[in-house]
Amino acid sequence: MVHSATPSLSTDTLDNIPVHLPPELLRTIFALATDKKFNLTQDFTNDDRIRLSHVCSSWRSVLLGMKELWSDMVIDLEAHPRILAVASRFLSRADGVPLSISVRMNGAANYAPRDPSADEFIDKIILPYAAFTQSLRLYVPFRYISMLLTLPFALSFPILESLSLRQASYGILSQTAIPTTPHLSFPRLHTFEFGARLPEHKSLLEVPQLSFIQWTQITTLMIRRHIAAKTAYDILATCTGLRTLWANLNSIDPDERARLYGSPGLYLPHLERLHIRFCTSMGFSLFLSLLNLPSIRDLALKETDGNGLGWSSVLDDFLLNRCGSHLENIFISNSRYDDELEAVVPGERQFFLQKHALTLRRLSVSCLPLTGGQTVRQLISGEMCPQLEALSLNLCPIDDPFEQLDYVLSAVKDVRSEGRQPPVKDLYLYNLCLHPTINKAISTRFDSQLRKIRKCGWRNFVSHIYDCSSCAHDPQVFESDWFGYSA
């Protein structure tokens, strides 16, 4: 009998044998190993898709064939003088796949870098890829935006759905060098963010450079610059398909109130999300009295000066009678009481909570009804709002914040005695107290209460604001915690 022997391979030999994975498996691995967005910053050569493409020719071939890896790009204008040429070359690898392009500076400035130029931006990014761009976000020097909006020839973005225009250097859109007819076309545009400076007393709807926008098909509108309340009213009246509006309003002074008086009320059946920032509480109730929102789900009424909007019968009536029965998220910057508060029967301020009890998921209304802690206990326990996941309690205007914390702990105790957990997962607390070095006893007691609350298993966001009552209502403190940003 003849026995054939198979030679054994050493470990070194095995290590030197090339392993070729099938392209299908490599594509799966590369898709999991790389970020969705391709960030063209100063160190973009360290991006995984670049490093992997340098391993071997077969890997490079697979990576270059994965068009989706090159279709979502963030371009940092300050990364390199020739960054636009580099970006254009990488975008060409997407080869017809819908593109998401963001071009930005690191921060706003009163100057703009000489390189790359606005002409190069148009030639390298806009013109070659207009037909394939689905989302375009620009936070760029003013002349980039101005040149794009005043092109002397026709240019269509046939699949563009989302457009953001924000200027990172000084400039005002004027009527000079404006084409007699709009040359830009965005037939599918439905999401628009605008953050460029307009001439004084010029409405967003009246800007010639934006005449290409079909306002009736816009569903999401974010306005970064302050606008007049009457402009916001006109936008809501014009954009009949609007589902989301974010806007910053100028002070509603007597002249502006005169422009609003007599305006017919607006019935807005499609609006689901409304975030409004008021400069002051002056006149906000008049603006709200003009709105009827049967489908609203997400409502945020913010303010700038830190005094809060205050609670009033108008605000209560708005939540109760002018908002439909679908509210899920409520944020109202009412961190102070105003004189009207005493004129409202405390129990009536609970009616809006009862109306939206079955739908509310996030609630930040600091001046809750003064019902001896009953409302707090009902909210924490889920008795009133069984779907509530996040609750914000402002302890600043309360004479005894420890009593409010006792209500929270009492509610938890009652719920657990029934063998269940409170539905609230996130608890936001804002407290104005003396600095520990001034009143150590109060600080120690408060910290003790907080430790008990943290043991409940919630995610807690606790802001201590010491000594200065005016700082207790800093809107950025409230908003950065609640929304994850302050804008």
TrEMBL record:
<dbReference type="InterPro" id="IPR032675">
    <property type="entry name" value="LRR_dom_sf"/>
</dbReference>
<protein>
    <submittedName>
        <fullName>Uncharacterized protein</fullName>
    </submittedName>
</protein>
